[in-house]
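INFO  loader      accepted 1 record
INFO  loader      residues=284
INFO  predictor   begin
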Amino acid sequence: MAAEEALTTKGYITHHLTNLTYGQHPDGHWGFAHSAQEAAEMGFWSFNVDTLGWSIFLGALFCWLFWLVARKASSDTPSGLQNFVESIVEFVDGSVKDIFHSRNLVIAPLALTIFVWVFLMNFMDLIPVDLIPELAKIISGDPHIFMKVVPTTDPNATLGMAFGVFILIVYYSIKIKGLGGFLGELTLHPFGKWMLPFNLFLEGVNLISKPVSLGLRLFGNMYAGEMIFILIALMYSGGLIVGAAGGVLQWAWAVFHILIITLQAFIFMVLTIVYLSMAHESSH
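INFO  predictor   done
INFO  writer      dumping tokens
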């Protein structure tokens, strides 16, 4: 009996941590994975459909909401939603002005997009862990369908955003400093031309570590938070007393997690601004 319960618990956790993956099966046909093992066997050229779907939906929601507020904006009688959106815009704009001292009209909109989009993806972690997966089972008719609703618990999403920032870092480094200046930073700093291989190693590691740390920091924090919610949800099957304790723990962790999801969105935004500011400093 104990082994069966352990297997059931393991299966519950595994199911909630497995993406709805579409890719090529070993026999050559394309389709959805029906187990975590099948998803792993699909390899690199597979798609986490739930991550892509929820990311696009939340990005579209952000664009629609801000467009709606801008369209109906009024300086005489602003709505509560307009005041809220304006406070977010002012907060992000103030952060950009404090950190980024060059002139680039892309940075502020980019920072706003990152902050709101990452926050919305993180916010999905506050939805009860079984709610949307159970709805997906009912709608699809498949009792074993996978559905991860927090895109930032998928390293493909967080590292994808981080490498997008990395491309901008390299682009503006070359644009501002020139190709020679960019390569000079990688090969001549900090010990001069006589230590070129060592300089290249140090600066290369420093450059590559930016997107890696940016993406993995967000993924690690959100994955850990999701895991705690899943473990708390398991307490509801432990009887009345354990279930009640789980309800209290879930409420307490959700309140604390509000700070985490906001902080992680802020950190991702701030580090993006810092890295792009460094890319614009020709004397760096």
